[in-house]
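Reminder to self: tokens first, then the designed residues, so the page reads top to bottom the way the pipeline ran.
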């Protein structure tokens, strides 16, 4: 067992969402009495200073990164973390395929932290050189005081962008017809079977339909599966929003790319563009229902679910076994099947028609999320695995 971790370095300054998560983790660390140092990549004084040198030269220091921001930090010609034997915990917010370059050649002392349990076997299969892997769902954060349920002025809220519409897909030279059948079949299969993961479908196609080698499977998954993922996710989001529109349900949408494919909606669906993470969370305090589409996590969760409940909204989300095991369906949050979004629309309509029952579900969800799924809770979980030998 190495030295106990008591000092944690964080990074920010690249993406607004990642900065918001980092700020909430730092707040949680300070609440727990953990010593922290925050590097702002946009402010050289935060990493070109004597204070930073003194911090990382202490015993019991670890770095906690989001999406590898700060992973390649150097001191002279050497990687800082390797030079000082500082363990690095990289919280991979997106699918690991997006980081295949660095995961293929990890630095010494690297720990992967995944947001979906399904990413563990994925890393084990394609990046066996990765050592410890830890699981951590995102957390939620309060912003402002939740309004009483009866005073909320937003019927349904959706905070999040849509995937951009795709018309061109990368050619895959070693597949028949350059991969056109691959894209069509995989996309159709995932739409018909939305509880399957992307890797399950792509591997099925490449082994059963094409008899590809493991090297070819690796190249296809790392280079093209993102296009399958984006197309399927856009399909379900656009379908759901059209069904809500046709049912006359009012939805306030904060995000981008919803109408880039030429889709049109009535005034029932109001698009406001993208807003900050903090503003999204403030909006949940005004919403009766917060709709969620998972980022194709089947055994993990993004922050949107917990933010919605902490803000006092009733969270309605597509099915996810991880969440269904932790939250009581129809008592703490409501789940729907992507394959039957008409039923989702009918359920939302019934929830809006039953404010008393909906308020009870929202209240129970908020109580559970505040107890188990804030960023402060996540920070304690981070310290627990940093100071244990446990990994997945």
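Designed residues (392 positions):
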């Amino acid at each position: 067992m190495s030295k106990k971790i008591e000092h944690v370095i964080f990074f920010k300054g690249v993406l607004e969402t990642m900065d918001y998560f980092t700020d909430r983790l730092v707040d949680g660390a300070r609440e727990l009495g953990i010593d922290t140092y925050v590097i702002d990549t946009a402010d050289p004084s935060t990493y070109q200073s004597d204070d930073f040198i003194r911090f990382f030269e202490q015993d019991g220091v670890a770095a906690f990164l989001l999406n590898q921001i700060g992973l390649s930090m150097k001191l002279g010609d050497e990687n800082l973390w390797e030079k000082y034997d500082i363990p690095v915990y990289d919280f991979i917010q997106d699918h690991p395929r997006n980081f295949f370059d660095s995961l293929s050649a990890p630095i010494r002392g690297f720990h992967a932290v995944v947001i979906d349990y399904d990413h563990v076997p994925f890393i084990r299969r394609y990046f066996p050189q990765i050592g410890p892997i830890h699981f951590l769902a995102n957390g939620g954060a309060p912003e402002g005081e939740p309004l009483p349920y009866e005073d909320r002025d937003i019927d349904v809220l959706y905070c999040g962008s849509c995937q951009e519409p795709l018309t061109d897909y990368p050619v895959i030279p070693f597949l028949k017809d350059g991969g056109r059948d691959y894209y069509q079949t995989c996309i159709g299969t995932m739409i018909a079977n939305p509880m399957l993961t992307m890797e399950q479908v792509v591997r099925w196609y490449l082994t059963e339909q094409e008899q590809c080698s493991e090297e070819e499977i690796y190249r296809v998954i790392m280079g093209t599966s993102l296009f399958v993922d984006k197309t399927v996710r856009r399909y379900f989001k656009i379908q759901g929003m059209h069904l809500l529109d046709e049912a006359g349900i009012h939805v306030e949408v904060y995000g981008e790319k919803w109408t880039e494919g030429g889709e049109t909606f009535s005034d029932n669906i109001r698009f406001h563009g993208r807003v900050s993470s903090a503003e999204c969370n403030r909006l949940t305090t005004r919403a009766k229902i917060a709709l969620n589409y998972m980022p194709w996590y089947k055994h993990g969760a993004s922050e949107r679910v917990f933010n919605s409940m902490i803000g006092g909204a009733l969270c309605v989300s597509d099915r996810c076994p991880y969440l269904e095991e932790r939250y009581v369906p129809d008592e703490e949050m409501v789940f729907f099947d992507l394959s039957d979004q008409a039923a989702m629309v009918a359920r939302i309509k019934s929830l809006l028609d039953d404010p008393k029952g909906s308020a009870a579900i929202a209240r129970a969800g908020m109580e559970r999320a505040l107890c188990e799924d804030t960023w402060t809770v996540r920070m304690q979980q981070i310290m627990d695995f940093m100071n244990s030998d446990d990994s997945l």
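The first strand starts at residue 7 and ends at 12.
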